[in-house]
Amino acid sequence: MAPPEKIELKKQAQQLIEQYDNFLFDCDGVIWLDEKLIPGVLETIEHLESQGKRFAFVTNNSSKSRDTYIEKFHRLGFKGIGKHLIYPTCYAAASYLKEHLKVPAGAKVWVLGDHGIETELKELGYIPVGGSDPRLDDEFHPQHDLLKVDPDVRAVVVGSTKAFNYMRIATTLQYLLHENKSLPFIGTNIDRSYPGPEGLILPAGGSVVNYMSYTSNRDFIDVGKPSKRLLETILEQRDFDKSKTLMIGDTMYTDIKFGNDGQLGGESGGSLLVLSGGTKLKDLHHLIENPASLQDGPSLIPLKYIESFGHIIHLLSN
Ligand SMILES: [Mg+2]
């Protein structure tokens, strides 16, 4: 396959905008790094809007609900970003329970993860248990009430949490093993790490999900990127023509694979890697030189790459 095209000229930036009608953005590493907006991104997205382009935000981060994301977008200067444009995996998990597993509203769902999951479950009529229950901060002891399985729990959702401890692992494991491992096990995402503040690389939700997968010896249903089901849901809800849609992200095994496997952009392709987050140019070079060394190698290679999405407005104004 052809090596990815580096976008570095005004003409290439113009062509990119002409080629696609719809833009799907990852958030961490693309729009912002923690609380810092990546320079030029807001102006580039405003430019897209002025050209009648449509967009949506798809993040594997499950710790914040759509409402919390709206507040963050506003805080960083974005105007008019509605809830319908934001797809965090906490929302994807709740909708998967409803739309695909047909778990009825009113059911209890055991949660290992931060607030976002509980909020989105409640919005769809579920009763989250576990999650932010303060008793999960207790020291572990085998007679603890929470280690007794609540028979009304109908599914388990696991995602990113900064409050990982033995009580949370041990209680969640009881649900994953319950009745011959028959409760559905949903994992919000497979991300190993993410670019955090102060230049730190920090553990992401996928490490929690895989911890629980290992200890329970169970596979999980991945509702985050690169899941095709998530892509289909977004394209359908937003009425995006797949062949005119571009995925923009900083992680090859989630974002770029999501765009490539989902056949965005039709025959020409529709994935753009930005180097403003967790992937550096040397990582891309390494992948191109050794595609076979990685499982799914070719589907991880982006169609195009650019130093940051905000660089587009800079190229356009030159
Ligand atoms: Mg990212």
UniProtKB/TrEMBL annotation:
The active site is at D26, D28. Pfam families: Hydrolase_6, Hydrolase_like. GO terms for molecular function: alkaline phosphatase activity; metal ion binding; phosphoglycolate phosphatase activity; phosphoprotein phosphatase activity. Divalent metal ions. Mg(2+) is the most effective. It catalyses: 4-nitrophenyl phosphate + H2O = 4-nitrophenol + phosphate + H(+). Gene3D superfamilies: HAD superfamily/HAD-like. Keywords: Hydrolase, Magnesium, Metal-binding. The keyword tRNA processing does not apply. InterPro entries: HAD-like_sf (IPR036412), HAD-SF_hydro_IIA (IPR006357), HAD_sf (IPR023214), PGP_euk (IPR006349). Mg(2+) binds at D26, D28, D250. Substrate binds at K225. GO terms for biological process: carbohydrate metabolic process. Its EC number is 3.1.3.41. Its cofactor is Mg(2+). GO terms for cellular component: cytoplasm. The keyword Protease does not apply. This is 4-nitrophenylphosphatase. It comes from Hyphopichia burtonii NRRL Y-1933.
